[in-house]
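Two proteins, back to back. First:
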Amino acid sequence: MGSLALAAKITHVPSIWLSLQDGPHHGIRRPAELALRELGRRAHSRGVDTFIIADTHWLNSSGFHVNAKSQHSGSYASHELPHFIRDLPYSYPGDHSLAALIGEEIHAAGLKSLVHDIKDLGLEYGTLVPMHLMNATEPRIRVLPIGCNMYSTIPENLVVGSAIARAVERSDRRVGFLASGSLSHAFPTNALTDKYLNRISSDFHAHMDHVVLRMWTEGRIAEFLEMLPDYNVKCSGEGAMADTAMLFGVLGGAEYVGRGEQLCDYFPSTGTGQVVVDFTVDGLGVRQRRPSSR
């Protein structure tokens, strides 16, 4: 029987990659770098053998997609921001068997699931930037990306998260679930982007992001989930905030009684709100869940 060993909301902003390179932006995201490295250390110390990553840069328009490749390897350049991220080599084992179980459980929950083992299906930077910092130690932890449907609803993604938890329970894996995306996600207009590298687009968005972080660190999860649909709409959720909803679905939804630990200060990046938060899972793993109906 599998278990949930780690669950976190993480940042993947391209400026983290710039921060790692020589040049004028070297070190600008050092707190985020250190937070992701610490999260990776925790994953290894807790025996995580598979990272499931809800990647808001693998955007889908229909259904819920799972990458079932047994091996991910290549060299990445961002189509969105090739001047920020290029020449990023990667090689990680995948998790074909767990991907198949996730697809089965999403389908059993009444949603459309598509499980892919496609040679040319590469990884996106919502996976690659965090993995570069979190998963460099050999042997590398398996990587299992899940796409985010940009037209999905919060309730659907909570169901997907619950389905992922049931699939983990059916497996023999110790899983780290990562919700890879921003808090608020409003970009400035094109003419202003260079001036907003370290600024938020809206004071209202920053205020709401801080409200959310207080809810998480104080364990007010049921209250947060009630406002999540409005938060998604009014603060320009990245990828429909599918990653965040999946995360809390994995954790048990409104019944989750844990809380988040903030691993770096909240920071703005090109108009968006960013953070790394590790949620307690002790005693709240998928072993405690209602058995699968399958």
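And the second protein:
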Amino acid sequence: MADNTAVAVLGTGIMGAAMARNLCRAGLDVRVWNRTRSKAEPLAGVGARVTSTPGEAAGGADVILTMLYDGAAVLDTMTAAAPSLTPGAVWLQSTTAGTGALAPLTELARTTGLVFVDAPVLGTKAPAESGQLTVLAAGPDSVREAVAPVLDAIGSRTVWVADSGSTGAATRLKLVCNSWVLTLTHGTAEALALSAGLGVDPARFLDAVAGGSLDCGYLRLKADAIRNGDYTPSFSVTTAAKDARLIVEAGRAAGVRMDVAAAGGERFRRAEALGHGGDDMAASYFASFEA
């Protein structure tokens, strides 16, 4: 593919919109679609062509990037786009869809002649906006050079974890990584909630662990959000609850009990019930208190 690679971005939520903006800045031919069109329309200002249907966006595209809520949404969207797809185009599937959703997606790719690349990303709103995501990719060696302009625009690093002979390798790694992200988030939220309950200044806790093996950047990031009461979403409670469910399901299928992930999912459920579904997942903090 040349520098005028045509890329269809299907799904322009927090992550998809940021990725589309960086693709436009890289000079690629970007078409975007979102179920709620108003969420996609601001991208026209950076050069994207806003479309009304998935097929309109994907028709003639060299690369189709899906960044939707879950596997079911991806399957519905790509099924709708199927009549317009160009055989041989590359499908970068970046939605956190879970292992159970992969079979129907790869089958759809086969029947439509698309080259399927399992390509979830590590990172939330800020790295997505700055093009600093890490892309976990599994797909044929033959397309790596072709999709490099797209991957280089949305991320600072691409980790090719397997070729097409290992379907879902990137998704499995993504679930492992997300299990750690959610664990850190809940741990931070509970520690600060316990600080509040015991009358301990959270600054004392953060000072006590500063610079040692118990300290980490993610603790600081989520602690700052909680202390400042800033729950602007970079990764919403509702989406995190979905990912927790996928992690637990994947573990169960592999014979692994994910007790912490299951308990974390329950915390997100309580936070949602308290009205924090659209807030950043640091709002797990509120699940520590009675309604």
